[in-house]
């Protein structure tokens, strides 16, 4: 018992490393066959192969889920297969001569103040890793993403989430299937930890973009500070949500699109553009109107502006090449189509067919006056906005360092053309999103596009520090701003540090850093029998047992309870013994339960109330044994 926490942490880390290398093995093998046909072990090539491996592994897991075989042995076989096919690459990496200079990222070239700041970046990054490992899922991850992965892992098959998330189950599963696989061979910590290498992959592509635009070690340091202090980026590296998968794919597509317009032999690079852009758009549908215009601007830029640069016309991307790239982009959509065809009988869901609730595809978050205010305050709204459902903001460093672009623009040399291209491409995607969904002020919906402004700021900041290197007070001010950004973003990590001793010895309460839903639902998971149905008047069901989750209300039952004049009576008629009510979002049902003599309050934590409902003695369980009472997969009918 005293070492349970430490052993669990070690096992989680080992599991996620093995799984990540398995993805890398699959991706490298396919990359070698499709694109490289040579030994490529550069960091950006390996990172691209890793992302491709995520897509390939996800396709295999989709097939396993359709036939109901996401269980221990098949997942381990799949994982070991990735390691085996990647053995030549791993052997090549092991034989490669690694010098200190090859892994230092140029830190020796930095002045002492920036080296010290680099240490702060490393420490905070490790804190985020620990936070991802220790903390339970929160927010949307607790409602759907990790919760859905748990359901897939414990049932072994792809099915729909019950009740309110049935329609949402038609989305693609860029991270959920991997989370389910890691829960199967590891645990929750391993599943949540898998988002960390995906976040690192995003940083790798942004760093390489900085390099080809003329940036050096300082620009990469500024880039790291901006990412670590952007809650809309780092929050999704630790909470169990999947937004960073789409962002990593999108940034990979941007990098290869930019490189394709700089190299004469760019046909193979366009394969990467197609595969990565397809993976990004299927991972998050909002990337269709944002990333696609961004890539289009990047690819046709040299066609429109051949006056700049020293490369020949051979580097111009033709219309036929863009068409072939689009064909490659369709491949990552195939597993999604297969999943929806098998589970819902509607391959084109959620756009056409499947369980319908189209409101989430055509969202309007705020009233016109609030929307107009959001539009009037761009880009400040992306940094300082604190709107409901926003899901984090960008770093204030982006606004603080924006004047540096104007001050040093003429001194950026050849990199200036590339930075202008990035800025225009990012602006194109952002403007189209604002035109289509002006009230949705959530950077996660277009994260890959908005992050294209980061290399512009990072390179400009580096040139500013070089130009005014003699003015120590200016350098001191810039460094202080970045330290302030790191300090401000450490609040995610501080609860982890306080809980670390208890976690290490295995005495940390699971609900210590969880939402208020944890305690009531854990009580039901421990005390409730499989015949006791639970109705959750709220959005979070992660802490219930899987049989209780599957035995929850279907869409019609949930609708009838919410529309009933006497909700408790309707719950009794449907055989629900327990009610978990969220007073902050379902106050009407809560008040009805509190006023009904057949509902007894068992527990309250914050705004979450647990009631036991007295059922008639002759009532029979509608869902005996915890059998699913939800949307049935099409293949099971």
Explain what this protein looks like in three dimensions.
With 637 residues, the chain is mainly α. The chain contains 31 helices and four strands. It has helices at residues 4-36, 43-66, 72-85, 87-95, 100-103, 112-134, 140-155, 176-185, 188-193, 195-212, 217-228, 231-238, 243-260, 267-283, 287-304, 319-330, 334-344, 368-376, 380-384, 397-400, 403-408, 415-436, 447-450, 453-467, 472-489, 494-504, 518-527, 546-550, 555-563, 567-574, 587-595; strands at residues 533-537, 576-582, 599-605, 608-613. It has a four-stranded mixed sheet with strand order 1-2-4-3, with helices on both faces. A hairpin with a 2-residue loop joins strand 3 and strand 4. Helix 2 packs antiparallel against helix 10 (195-212), helix 6 (112-134) packs parallel to helix 25 (472-489) and helix 13 (243-260) runs parallel beside helix 15 (287-304). The protein is globular, with a radius of gyration of 25 Å. The two termini are 46 Å apart.
């Amino acid at each position: 018992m005293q070492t349970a926490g430490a052993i669990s942490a070690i096992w989680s880390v080992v599991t996620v490393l093995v799984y990540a290398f398995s993805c890398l093995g699959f991706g490298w093998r396919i990359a070698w066959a499709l694109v490289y046909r040579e030994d490529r072990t550069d960091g950006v090539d390996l990172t691209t192969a890793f992302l491709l491996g995520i897509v390939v592994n996800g396709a295999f897991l989709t097939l396993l889920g359709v036939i109901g075989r996401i269980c221990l042995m098949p997942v381990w076989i799949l994982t070991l297969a990735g390691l085996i096919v990647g053995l030549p690459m791993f052997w090549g990496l092991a034989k490669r001569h690694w010098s200190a200079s090859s892994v230092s990222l140029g830190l020796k070239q930095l002045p002492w103040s920036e080296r010290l700041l680099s240490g702060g970046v490393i420490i905070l990054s490790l804190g985020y890793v620990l936070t991802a490992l220790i903390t339970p899922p929160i927010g949307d991850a607790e409602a759907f993403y990790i919760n859905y992965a748990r359901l897939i892992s414990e049932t072994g098959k792809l099915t729909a989430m019950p009740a309110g998330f049935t329609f949402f189950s038609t989305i693609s599963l860029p991270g959920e299937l991997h989370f389910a696989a890691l829960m199967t061979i590891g645990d929750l910590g391993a599943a949540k930890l898998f988002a960390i290498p995906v976040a690192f992959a995003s940083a790798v592509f942004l760093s390489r973009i900085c390099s080809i635009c003329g940036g050096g070690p300082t620009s990469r340091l500024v880039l790291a500070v901006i990412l670590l202090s952007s809650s809309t980026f780092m929050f999704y590296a630790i909470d169990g949500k999947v937004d960073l998968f789409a962002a990593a794919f999108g940034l990979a597509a941007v990098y290869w699109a930019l490189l394709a317009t700089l190299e004469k032999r760019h046909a193979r690079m366009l394969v990467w553009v197609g595969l990565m852009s397809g993976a990004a758009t299927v991972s998050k549908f909002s990337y269709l109107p944002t990333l696609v215009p961004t890539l289009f601007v990047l690819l046709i830029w040299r066609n429109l502006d051949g006056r700049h640069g020293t490369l020949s016309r051979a580097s111009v991307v033709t219309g036929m090449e863009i068409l072939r790239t689009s064909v490659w982009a369709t491949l990552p959509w195939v597993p999604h189509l297969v999943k929806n065809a098998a589970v819902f009988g509607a391959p084109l869901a959620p756009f056409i067919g499947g369980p319908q609730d189209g409101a989430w595809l055509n969202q309007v978050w705020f009233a016109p006056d609030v929307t107009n205010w959001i539009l009037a305050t761009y880009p400040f709204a992306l940094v300082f906005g604190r709107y409901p459902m926003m899901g984090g903001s960008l770093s204030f460093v982006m606004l603080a360092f924006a004047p540096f672009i104007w001050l040093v623009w003429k001194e950026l040399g050849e990199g200036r053309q590339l930075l202008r291209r990035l800025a225009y491409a990012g602006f194109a995607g952002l403007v189209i999103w604002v035109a289509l969904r002006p009230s949705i002020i959530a950077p996660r919906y277009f994260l890959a596009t908005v992050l294209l402004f980061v290399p512009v700021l990072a390179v400009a900041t580096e040139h500013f520090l070089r130009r005014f290197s003699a003015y120590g007070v200016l350098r001191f001010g810039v460094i202080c701003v970045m330290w302030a950004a790191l300090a401000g973003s450490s609040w995610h990590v501080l609860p982890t540090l306080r809980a670390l001793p208890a976690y290490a010895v295995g005495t940390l309460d699971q609900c210590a850093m969880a939402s208020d839903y944890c305690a009531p639902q854990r009580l039901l998971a421990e005390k409730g029998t499989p015949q006791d149905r639970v109705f959750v008047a709220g959005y979070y069901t992660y802490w219930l047992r899987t049989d209780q989750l599957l035995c929850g209300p279907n869409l019609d039952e949930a609708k009838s309870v919410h529309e009933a004049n006497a909700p408790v009576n309707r719950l009794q008629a449907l055989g629900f013994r327990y009610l978990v009510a969220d007073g902050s979002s379902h106050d009407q049902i809560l008040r009805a339960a509190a006023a009904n003599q057949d509902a007894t309050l068992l527990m309250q934590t914050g705004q979450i109330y647990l009631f036991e409902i007295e059922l008639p003695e002759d009532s029979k369980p509608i869902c005996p044994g915890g059998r699913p009472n939800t949307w049935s997969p099409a293949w099971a009918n």
